[in-house]
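Box 3.1 — From sequence to structure: 7,8-dihydroneopterin aldolase
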Amino acid sequence: MDRIIIKDMEVYGYHGVYPEEKKLGQMFLVSVEMKVDLSAAGHVDNLECSIDYGQICDHIKQALTENCYDLIEAAAIAVIEKLFEKHPAVYAVRALIKKPWAPLGHHLKYVAVELERSRAV
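Predicted structure (token representation):
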């Protein structure tokens, strides 16, 4: 099974339950793994047979900056839906969104959600 992977892309967003999070914003780390048939790209060595990684990053950023979400679960769904919308060749997406330094009153590296969805057939 072929995959395109983007790991720990930094996106500044205004997501969270608390008013300060929506006002001040914070950095989020986004990783996606997309299942796609890359056999033609591997044989032909032509970008037109694959998906431009820069476009993937642009679409992840759009999904996280077009709206503000209370929950990173909703932000992850937005990322997945944007990638399905913009890239018809993708048939499954796993999105991991990390929220470093979440304001929980505890010392931690990050909290995160990981969602995986397949395209409806």
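Summary of the box: The helical segments are 19-24, 39-44, 53-65, 72-86.
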